[in-house]
Amino acid sequence: MIRLTPAPKRGLHGQLTVPGDKSISHRALMFGAIAQGVTEIENFLDSDDVLHTMGVFRALGVQIEQNGTRVRIQGQGLDHFQAPKAPLDMGNSGTSTRLLMGLLSQQPFDMTIFGDGSLSQRPMQRVLAPLAQMGAQITLTDGDKLPGVIHANHTLTGITYEMPVASAQVKSALILAGMQATGQTKIIEKLPSRDHTERMLRQFGGDIQSENGVITVSRQPALVGQHVVVPADISSAAFFMVAALMTPNSELTLKNVGINPTRDGVLRLLRRMGADLQLSNIDDTNEPTADITVRTQPLHGIHITAADIPSAVDEIPILALAATQAQGDTVISGAAELRVKETDRIATLVRELTKLGADIEALPDGMIIHGGTPLHGSTDSTLLETHGDHRIGMMNAVAALIAHQEVVMTGEDAMSVSYPGFLADLMQVMR
Ligand code: S3P
User: What catalytic activity does the UniProt entry give for this protein (predicted)?
Assistant: First the structure.
């Protein structure tokens, strides 16, 4: 349990480099493990989720050295993994599970996979069904849940698949399987999801086409180990952006943040709410980055619809908090995917923010937030909880900055899934 105090009157100040991007760190490990030769990763996210992906590759016999945020992988290609001696632990990580189901779907041995309580509730059929069409042999509990077994297999064949939901995890699983299959794999996306897998495959010397919502990939020649520099995670930076916007007298600069256009929806949505975000030092490399300066500003309510969701899916909890302080109503629709994240985020964020006095109604696929409500503290009877969800925990901690009394929260360990040093960094900008 932790006690969180309101922000000081002088506001939040300084420069901060939040940790490396979670999605890109997972992928750097995966491509490093299947490429030939050494891959070095810089600014790697040293957090629970990504360490589960690392643990899987070590269990498969890949040599990986880690020194804080630097990682060195001795890649040997896809054909040299060793059968693991124990079941593979995915922890809380949907990205590890779904991407690895694709990547490991053509190995000569069986692998049992399992995860924690939250991950064991999350739907896997969305990956299993198209992978089964490709010839993968994966069995899951009740056909949809962990634990499960990825069976030995050598028969992957390309398919054409129209994605029923916008999901980078599903798309990436199919790309990673398509890279090993005979024939072409075509994935049709109605709305673009984050394209880190496509960008990284190209960086490692692979070939993948992406045009008008159709992604085409075939069996790849040997990939070559790379030096990967991971940008700071925009999903982590978003908590500080909203913190600075809402906390009087603040000015924060977030350094080196990834602004890949398939991930930077939070910038567009905050701008639509009236935020003036200043981008500088823009570096237009494979994964573009910028420094983002944010000052305290009044915001107004907006409509967030299905087309806005994929590029900001992980930022909806913190945007919802911003909306409680905006003028007027914010309506979020087309966001049913939030119900199958680490928690049912529509339910958990409505529950937590309501405890602080916010005025929010849940909808089946979103919510209506009536803005302009002051937030009070939490008492023992309205103790805030993370519900084991890192992003709900960080949202609560940011809410505490503008609450009129002390906020008490339990389950803070959940934050280590993506940002183990979050509270320390928050304290740093409060000094
Ligand atoms: C991720 C994709 C998103 C996101 C998750 C990371 C990824 O999930 O919510 O935190 O790295 O591909 P979905 O693909 O389920 O939308």
Answer: 3-phosphoshikimate + phosphoenolpyruvate = 5-O-(1-carboxyvinyl)-3-phosphoshikimate + phosphate
The residue ranges of DSSP E strands in 12-123, in sequence order, are: 13-16, 36-42, 63-67, 70-76, 88-89, 111-114
326-376 pLDDT, tens digit each: 999 999 999 999 999 999 999 999 999 999 999 999 999 999 999 999 999
Does 314 participate in catalysis according to the annotation? yes
From the CA atom positions of the chain, what is the Rg in Å?
A: 21
Q: At which residue do the structure tokens 């958990």 appear?
A: 348
- Is the CB of residue 314 less than 8 Å from the CB of residue 196? no
Token pair for residue 162?
């129209």
Count of domains for the chain: 2
Q: Taking the model in full, what pTM does it have?
A: 0.98
Give kind and range of the element (H or E) at residue 426: helix 422-430
Q: Based on the domain organization, do 168 and 309 belong to the same domain?
A: no
| In a shared domain, residues 72 and 162 | yes
C-alpha 403/C-alpha 4 separation (Å) is 10
Pair (238, 162) in one structural domain: no
Residue 225 lies in a domain: no
Q: What is the mean pLDDT of residues 297-316?
A: 98
**Are both 35 and 168 inside the same structural domain?**
yes
- How much distance in Å is there from the Cα of 94 to the middle of ligand 1? 8
Q: What is the mean pLDDT of residues 244-258?
A: 98
CA 321, CA 270: separation in Å to the nearest integer? Answer: 12
Greater model confidence, 381 or 65? 65
What pLDDT does residue 380 have?
A: 72
**Ligand 1, pocket residues at CB < 6 Å:** 23, 95, 167-169, 172, 194, 313-314, 337
Domain contains 226:
no
Ligand 1 pocket: which of 31, 53, 167, 260 to mutate (most atoms <8 Å of CB)?
A: 167
Question: Read out DSSP for 102-127?
Answer: HHTTT-SS-EEEE--TTGGGS--HHH
How far, in Å, is the centroid of ligand 1 from the Cα of 164?
A: 15
For residue range 11-22, list pLDDT tens digits in order.
999 999 999 999
Choose the catalytic residue: 21, 46, 116, 314: 314
Distance between CA atoms of residues 305 and 181, nearest Å: 36
Question: What is the Å distance from ligand 1's center to 11 Cα?
Answer: 33
Residue 114 has pLDDT above 80, yes or no: yes
Q: What is the SS3 assignment for 423?
A: helix
